[in-house]
Amino acid sequence: MLRGRPERELAAWLEAEAVGAAKAHAAKEQVRVDPGAAGEPERKAGEEQPKEPAPAQPRAAEEGDARVPPRPPPTLPMYQAKPASAQGLSPHGKSRSKSRSCKRSSDRSEEYCSPRPVTVDSSKARTSLDALKISIRQLKWKEFPFGRRLPCDIYWHGVSFHDSDIFSGLVNKFPGMTEMVRKITLSRAVRIMQNLFPEEYNFYPRSWILPDEFQLFVAQVRMVKDGDPSWKPTFIVKPDSGCQGDGIYLIKDPSDIRLAGTLQSRPAVVQEYICKPLLIDKLKFDIRLYVLLKSLEPLEIYVAKDGLSRFCTEPYQEPHPRNLHHIFMHLTNYSLNIHSGNFVHSDSTSTGSKRTFSSILCRLSSKGVDIKKVWSDIISLVIKTVIALTPELRVFYQSDIPAGRPGPTCFQILGFDILLMKNLKPILLEVNANPSMRIEHEQELSPGVFENVPSLVDEEVKVAVIRDTLRLMDPFKKKRENQSRQLGKPLASKEEPSDSDLASASAGSANPEAHLPSICLKQVFPKYAKQFNYLRLVDRMANLFIRFLGIKGTMKLGPTGFRTFIRNCKLSSSSLSMAAVDILYIDITRRWNSMTMDQRDSDPLLDQALLLLHPVTLFLRSHG
Predict the structure, then answer these.
(1) For 398-427, what is each residue's pLDDT tens digit?
(2) Is there a cis peptide before residue 211, judged by omega within 30 degrees of 0?
(3) Bridge partners of 104?
(4) What is the pLDDT of residue 299?
């Protein structure tokens, strides 16, 4: 539930999309059959395809292109490039001047000098390489597919922050993010917030961590069943290190024999299964929503205006012992359902086993559903989840990139998997640190023979997310805006640039983004910070931890660290010697070790803090 301003203000930016969604969706379906549907204007018969200027580094560009199969043009309205001579270029695509290209206004004495292209290291992009290449090409930036000896402006990694040593620029991963969104860590982080704010964090199913909490799981299930004999729950078991649906299964009772096997193999999370999901065409589906964490300090969160809806391939029935093993009925994972004989590949955004989320909203809107309310609840879920993750994430960040030392600026695209219940309440399933950005799918040509085929649905959503993330992180953006203000030409985002805009863009005007559509990522924090800042209690505790202790590459507070904490907090005095501080540390450690695992995880965080810090209070009182 939102606090402060009414929820219609939280979702005000969605009103235009909700009102015009049906018209836009219909327009897409009509345009899709046109020759220009792949992203370029229709050309007359016999018209020659315009050639792109030669790259600045032919070898790197040729080798990089060889790694990617030929693709259709990007799904973005493009303009016809002018001949090289009309753009002030030599036949080889290079500037006629050796200095940076400049444009002098006819009625101004000032001179606008465009900065060099942004450089992107894509050598570790992995499965997101195709979408990244298209994005860089649309932005007219410079790609280095095999790395570069000189520093790049942006480094795009496919998996982890620790892919290589980076000392400057921007990198699309946060240190510690992969660990923070693992199923066990995420469950613990959300549980802390559920203990503090139970009503605000009721969007995450009740969870137990195995094997540590197996006995607690058994006892709580038995207690609820004894109180309500009609309660017949279903539980879903998710391995902590699993991905793409690997190792997930359903059970009806803790005594399930497979659960016993899990205890002896790998840690897992067991959750209450959502038995009444919203169905479309009698099929269960989930939502993959892309969220950009632009900054940790200050906290900046952006949400993509569109996402993907992944469908099961078998009509849904509520779970009972006879259908618990029907994975195509209960699990929405694309990597599982792709192997179903009922999986439908479609070039339409509103049909098939993978569709755009906007097409689902259009369908719901036609049935009278309040789309603004749905979006408002989803945005609230995203902000609250990120707030639960940021405290430990900030400690990871300070540990890897201490203040005052050289290091990159981090940002990251997260994949939120969300399920809509029958009553349209969003439920968080999980958060992916490395959501798939592939824009093709495998198609079986003959038994055992597969071919990668472009997926227009994936390309439409994912290329826009990557491209607009790069636009938001553009290191030269502020410089261009300042120069534009000096020239008296404010930069304005336009959904449909005019012919004059396109002409000026191709000639190197002050707005290099004039040919691009409006940004598909919308800021939700700090835009709505006033409604959610009261939830950042644990975040403030992390600030104190970092401020008064400092980070030395460890997450634990040892005796030396405790001494540092006392000194930085200015608690030491003539009456509080370091020997007394050591005794105090031993007393606190003894209290912590005497607490059981269940007490540590189930007691409210503030109660734990007060219990452990109680000796400090007594000691300070006794010493004046």
Answers:
(1) 878 777 777 889 999 999 999 999 999 999
(2) yes
(3) 111
(4) 95
CA nearest 239: which of 205, 209, 204, 206? 209
For residues 156 and 135, is the Cβ–Cβ distance under 8 A?
Answer: no
Q: Between the CA atoms of 361, 366, 371 and 373, what dihedral angle is there, to the nearest 10 degrees?
A: -140
Phi and psi dihedrals of 336, rounded to 5? Answer: -90, -50
Q: Give phi and psi for 288, each to the nearest 5.
A: -100, 110
pLDDT in tens, 70-95: 444 444 333 343 443 343 433 333 33
C-alpha to C-alpha distance for 193 and 343, rounded to whole angstroms: 39
Paired tokens of 177:
């993010």
Q: Report in angstroms the alpha-carbon separations of 310 from 67, 278, 359, 362, 369.
A: 28, 13, 12, 16, 20
Secondary structure of residue 573 in the 3-state scheme: strand
Alpha-carbon distances of 17 from 24, 28, 183, 366, 451, rounded to whole Å: 9, 14, 33, 14, 36
- Whether this model's pTM surpasses 0.85: no
Structure tokens given for 62: 């040729």
Structural tokens at position 402: 């201490």
φ and ψ of 303, to 5 deg: -120, 135
**Distances 38 to 347, 371, 552 between C-alpha atoms, Å:** 11, 29, 52
Place of tokens 């809107």: 365
- Which tokens belong to 244? 């793409």
